[in-house]
Amino acid sequence: MAVLVVPEYLRQFAEPSGYLDFARFGPVSARVTEVLARSAERLHREGWEILDGLDAQTATAARTAGDVLGCAPHEIAFVSSTSHGLFAAAHALGAAAPRGTAGPSGGTVLVSRSDFPGALYPWLRASGNGGLTVRQIDGPLTADTVRAHLDDRVRAVSVCAVDAATGTRAPVAAIKEAIGPHRVLVVDAIQALGAVEFAADAADVLAAGGQKWLRAGWGAAVLMVRDRVSGQLAPGLGGWSGVVDPIEAPGHPCPARPGAVAHTVTNPDGPAVAALGAALALARDVGIGRINALIAEALDGLLGAARAAGAETHGGERGVGETPGVSGIARLRLPGTDPAAVHRVLAEAGVSTTLRGGWIRLSPHASTDPAAAGLLGDALRTVRAVRAA
Questions:
Q1: Are both 157 and 205 inside the same structural domain?
Q2: What percent of the chain has pLDDT over 90?
Q3: Residue 389 banded pLDDT, cuts 50, 70, 90
Q4: pLDDT for the residue numbered 319
């Protein structure tokens, strides 16, 4: 495993100076660009012989994901998106839950009502299809809020490692400790993986796409299913790619394959998986702790500039203990000013952000240009000057 120095890592990127929207999409690295270009060239010039190469790249990507998440390669599969992975998890738990059964093998999952909709709908749809019952909890999930809702029917908890709107980090390890080994903890890690260290070892099932902080583009996501919970899941969405010998089988359904691949619908997008593997290797080799330190530095500069320009800010606090470092997400607003107008002025000044719930979301990366803080501050002062005129 090669160690990558920070300057070499930073030379991988070339996004605009004012790009502060990595919680929405992360412009890809040079390494990912090269992998995608090579894959496209091979797809153009070769026939079926490319398949062996793509299979080898998928195996490499699984080993790399295992390095990052602390699991075995067979506990990793690749699906099309975070939502796809969460749907697989929801239907796997639902398919294994006997209806009307009392005790831990019953059928309730705890989720936060305020989570990003992509983390809610898999459970709602599984419930609507006769799977688990969904119990929505107000506010962010903590060990205490989860513990207060535990009963004999709760089989699982689903949580976002980092909240997409506020940047709040979930105490993943504490939640797992609260629910115990006989319940399943499902983690949506798309706003964490590649940007901030978190207790991935506490996650029983994890899904994370590559298009945000990992900067791998769309088309592939990690689905981790640990062996320790395999007996509590059934292949609810498992398709032909997740079963043993589907082509030559005398009849169907065939037995499920061992490992996370049992929960896949079909084979993944090979070039997208190769790109995700390259992005994971880049994060692993430079170190997520180093990436997070650079994100924290960028966020400090932006929030300082925003406050100096009269903005109210939220987020950017350093975590300790289980959640060290800082999430890459913080928010600002100008009191007495239309948030949509602020967002529009920022865009016109070349500052890319997301408007959500009356707040401007900032989400810089390690490669964010320090000049972005000046761009942000100047744009906010422009808004205030126009309002005062």
A1: yes
A2: 88
A3: low
A4: 77
Rg, C-alpha atoms of the chain: 22
- CATH code, 349: 3.90.1150.10
Residue 122 φ/ψ, nearest 5 degrees: -55, -40
Question: Using one digit for the tens of pLDDT, what is the confidence trace for 188-219?
Answer: 999 999 999 999 999 999 999 999 999 999 99
**Number of domains the chain contains:** 2
In a domain, 187, yes or no: yes
Q: What is the pLDDT of residue 3?
A: 77
Distance CA 355, CA 337 (A): 13
Do residues 189 and 242 touch, judged by C-beta distance below 8 A?
no
**216/12 Cα distance (integer angstroms):** 12
| Inter-residue contact 119 to 111 (CB < 8 Å) | yes
Stated as kind and residue range, the H or E segment containing 33 is: helix 30-45
Q: In a 3-state reduction of DSSP, which class is residue 32?
A: helix
pLDDT single digits (tens) 288-335: 999 999 999 999 999 999 999 999 999 998 876 677 789 999 999 999
The residue to which tokens 């810089």 are assigned: 364
- Per-residue tokens: 290: 């180093």
Domain that holds residue 59: 48-286
| pTM for the full predicted model | 0.95
Residue 6 lies in a domain: no
pLDDT higher than threshold 90 for residue 91: yes
Residue 266 in contact with residue 239, Cβ under 8 Å?
yes
